[in-house]
Amino acid sequence: MKEHMIDSNGVRIKVYEYSQTGEPLLFLHYTNGSSAIWRSIIPSFMGKYRVIAMDIRGHGKSDQPATGYQLETLAEDVLAVLDALEINKTYIVGSSLGCYIGTKFASMYPERVLSLVNSEGAMVNQFDGLLTETKEEYLDKYYSSPEQEFESREALIEFTKENWLPWNKERELVMKDYEPRKLENGKVTSITKRDTKRQIAEDLYDRRVEHLYENIQCSVLFLPAEKEGDLNKKLEFIKSVELKLKKSKTVIIPGTSHAMMFDNSKELIYEINNFFEDTDKIDRKKTF
């Protein structure tokens, strides 16, 4: 594996290049995660693809600037990574926030994306008719409480094991080399700051997600989670944006929740591989 620290307008983005042959495949993680969330499924793609995973700014080992978490900026980070690695076109697989970033990137730079997989993200306007509180009240409710502090890395890991359930080998892979953020009082906490997450949520709050799909030229695989809630609403949204797309597919993997790479990794791998193979067959037919 090759590791890179790539400059994106003064912000350093940590990138892991797991393999160097085949068409590029970029993995984008969810908020408060890192590229490590993909460790359980990446080996299944390394034989065929040039697999790359990046830590979104404010996460993992990437820089965490005080500002700059608008979706457009996060998409520009993807562009900086691809340009630095001399990648002209790539497949993109996203989870949650990673779906928003991948979709925005595919809209801004449609010629740079081969296919897009959205796993439980960018498939609904979350707050349509659901909230009685104001935007500020919503953000204060989730992002104003003090950050949770732990005496040591070991204490944080133990807390994670007890609360991130069901604890399994897929989740353990994420935490095996996790280095928490050190605080001035000597304690530690999670890497991504509360204010960073608030800025991301604030930007996404007002987004009309359907607009992200207006300029996309590639095929899109939608993977809404069966047990995450609002499934029917997501399916209605997907049906509406499919009209904007040249090709799309929707698959509901039974039993899935938000981060399906942990509890349904085999099924997730199968659906991604199957979609890419079908898309490749169609594209090859068009060239003859």
From TrEMBL:
AB hydrolase-1 domain: residues covered: 24-146
tRNA processing is among the record's keywords: no
UniProt keywords, alphabetically: Hydrolase
Organism of this sequence: Chengkuizengella axinellae
Single annotated GO MF: hydrolase activity
Name this polypeptide is given: Alpha/beta hydrolase
InterPro entries, A to Z: AB_hydrolase_1, AB_hydrolase_fold, AB_hydrolase_sf, Epox_hydrolase-like
A Pfam match: Abhydrolase_1
